[in-house]
Sequence to fold (157 residues):
Amino acid sequence: MPSPIYCLDTSSLIHWFVEIYPPTIFPGLLARVDELIATDRLRAPRAVLDEIRPGDDCHVWARSQTHLFVEESLPVQRIVRHLMATYGNPEKPHKAISGADPFVIAMAMDGGERWKVVSDEHPGSQENRKIPFVCANEKVPCLTFQQLMLAEGWRFR
Fold:
């Protein structure tokens, strides 16, 4: 079976790089992430880059990752329209997918069965539609950044 391809959400990028496993403490993790990017196994829509707060180390690193961030294709944009019509809520955007979320899910849906969404958002529900909830409804595999590390068999000393 071919190796999975991961589509990274802003929540996992911030969770990994800023909150839990910063490269200043876990430099080996950054090397593993760079390897996934170099082998075309870690991608994110350009919308994720747009959500990262300018001025910190995460933003500096992200802006240098020209191979990680991908412009949203027309098929992805069509899927985004479907996702927003189904799971969006313009009256309560904080209770529905918004921002880069639909682009992350759509990129994985467009990519095919090898693609998995990586998100560290809480699971969500019908009343609070977050990435894991939408992925479950759309039959798109979704895992956290830690689950990605476990799936890849990464070990650090």
Notes: The beta strands are 5-8, 42-45, 69-70, 115-118, 142-143. Residues 5-152 form a domain with the Rossmann fold fold (CATH 3.40.50.1010). The first strand starts at residue 5 and ends at 8. The mean pLDDT is 94.
